[in-house]
Amino acid sequence: MVVLIPSYKRTDVLKWVIQSVLQCDHEGIKERVLLLIVNNYYPNKKEVKAIISSFEFRGKFECEIIHREKTLPAVESWFKALFDSVRENEVVVLLGDDDLLMPWGLKNRYQQILEQKADMLISDFYDRIYFF
Predict the structure, then answer these.
(1) Please, how many CA atoms are within 13 Å of residue 68, restricted to the half-sphere of its CB?
(2) What is the pTM of this model?
(3) What would the mean pLDDT of 11-40 be, rounded to a whole number?
């Protein structure tokens, strides 16, 4: 499972986003849980590295950082990162650099993707969660 966290100039909450992922229940996830952080604003390189170094990634959790030397259009940056880092048939979750996960967030997304044999999970958090 890859949790893609794209970041651009917004590092003030990145620490809390990462912490929310690391605190998620991951029992039953049969893959590694790779936090793939894509820093699309090179001047933030030191700050992003400092944030990442404040965490311990244990067990299934791994972390990879990609620092873009040249800012790319968002979607291009995300897809390039995915093509370079994701293994075949791995579940991918896109998490904004200011979005937090609830403790059941990873496990829930993983299970729904597998149960629905889905290519993509779309969720709307206004009233309830929808899975497709």
Answers:
(1) 20
(2) 0.88
(3) 95
